[in-house]
Amino acid sequence: MIRRNPTGHLPEVSESAFIDPTAIICGKVIIEANVFIGPYAVIRADEVNDKGEMDAIVIKQDTNIQDGVVIHSKSGAAVIIGERSSIAHRSIIHGPCEVCDDVFIGFNSVVFNAVIGSGCVIRHNCVVDGLDLPARFHVPPMTNIGTGFDLNSISKVPPEYSAFSESVVSANHTLVQGYRRIANEL
Predict the structure, then answer these.
(1) Which residues are catalytic?
(2) Pfam families recorded for this chain (predicted)?
């Protein structure tokens, strides 16, 4: 469902994107080419800052937002999800936040008030809150990263996880094409 927010902003969605009919896209949201938005995802840009303004939530091209993902922002702050990134099932991305290009964020993970560098892999059930991750970092499952966390205690992304991330992007790109093809069959 595409809908306006209380300030009147309506999402801008590329014609080549696919949004599942059960997803809710609300407000000042920009969805670029070949993006896949899965069932029950919620992307909601509706809060304003103290000046009554808000930045957009931007989902860049060839990215996939999987089932049950929530993307929102506090006080109208920007949220940017980079190109060829995957936000896996039931994750939460809460702004202010930037997820750079070629990032994989695993099932049930939460990212808030952080910049996630290009090529990072955040595995399942992780929290990244208030600490930026440099490019190509690998966050092991069930890791909580916040202010004061020693980033030297985690490693760079192993090649097999980069390959996995690329395969997820490829699979979801194929889904965009397939779902768009059958969208009006029922």
Answers:
(1) 47
(2) Hexapep
